[in-house]
Amino acid sequence: MTFPLRPIGKTDILVTPIAMGCWPISGITSLDVTEANSLATLRAAVDSGINFFDTAFSYGFAGESESMIATALGSQRDKIVIATKGGIHWEGGVQRKDGRPETLRQQCETSLRRLQTDWIDLYYLHAPDPQTPIVESAAALRGLLESGKIRSVGVSNFSLAQLIEFHEVCPISAYQPHYNMLQREIEGSQLPWCLEQNVSLMIYWPLLKGLLAGKLPRDFQFDPKDGRRKYPMFSGEEWTKNQDFLDQLRPLAEETGKTLAQVVLNWTIQRPGITSALCGAKRPDQIIDNSGGMTWKLTAAQIERIDAAIVARGTVVSRAAVS
After folding, report:
1. Cβ neighbours around 101 below 10 Å, total
2. Among the four 43, 200, 266, 312, which has the fewest Cβ within 10 Å?
3. All residues at 6 or more sequence positions from 3 whose CB lies less than 8 Å from its CB, including other chains
4. Model confidence at 1, in pLDDT bands (50, 70, 90)?
5. Does residue 178 have a pLDDT over 60?
6. Whole-prediction pTM
């Protein structure tokens, strides 16, 4: 079986439960990224049945991610759903938050040009700006919604209180936090609110920056330029616990005839409230493998086994970041 398309919030915009996250193709933090591979990956995603692509104004120092989506998929615009984000830009090689209304309107116009489209299906405030009241950012996105430039509104990296404050001014259709088998903090706060309000959860890091794909051996040596080295889950005791956890999942993957990544993603998109899991990819083989997570279904008994392994793994020491 293949999972059916799912609506974004209360809208009639339908997306696949696996999406392509388009941060890696920007080439800023991922290693060995090429334009040829990036374009091929976007096309492979569509060929694999994925219709949902997640990018941002700041994915690339000059909008490379958005521009490549236009290049690779512009001729199929009516068949795909594009989400992008405003409110973060690069300044001297550093990401800066700017949620002022005039900035959001300007970045939205720039994104429309880069994407070579007349509309954006889902437009997020990428992160709250401490210098700008949330209600002002919300009013700006409501204006873009009413103008028809965007079809729905989302927010990313928000606390529960911030979600509520924004939603009172501009209706939220989607919320984007990090979430995976080992990082489930939202289950006690934002997720119940999203379920109550019929707000879609479009989660990033479903494979925990590649860790849960199970392709990194215990003795893996990270390139000094690899950004994952700064996260606790990729070193020391946390790394050992994570490898032990993956060893608990491998027999199940063998039984189902699926890859470990496909098992992890299948579990994720069956979680209550999860509309779509955003899978970053920079090569066709990666997105093809990921897309296989939505073409079958774990049984209730198999999910119970996974849940038991998660409990045995214990609390993860981690650090979230804007993505």
Report:
1. 16
2. 312
3. 16, 17, 269, 294, 295, 297
4. low
5. yes
6. 0.94
Is residue 151 scored above 60 in pLDDT?
yes
Distance, first Cα to last Cα, the chain: 31
Nearest in space to 116 (alpha carbons), one of 68, 168, 179? 68
Q: In whole angstroms, how far apart are CA 255 and each of 219, 233, 302?
A: 26, 27, 10
Check residue 317 and give its pLDDT.
Answer: 65
The two three-digit tokens of residue 60, written as one number: 């690339």
pLDDT digits (tens, 9 = 90+) for 11-28: 999 999 999 999 999 988
227, amino acid identity: G
Place of tokens 């088998």: 181
With b for 16 or more beta-carbon neighbours within 10 A and e for fewer, the 24-48 pattern comes to bbbbbebeebeeebbbbbbebbbeb
Catalytic sites, residue numbers: 59
User: What is the structure's pLDDT at 320?
Assistant: 45
* pLDDT 10s digits, 211-254: 999 999 999 998 888 888 888 899 999 999 999 999 999 999 99
**Phi, psi for 131 (deg, rounded to 5):** -90, -5
Q: Which of 283, 264, 287 shows the shortest CA–CA distance to 51?
A: 287
Confidence (pLDDT) at 83: 98
Share the mean pLDDT of the chain: 95
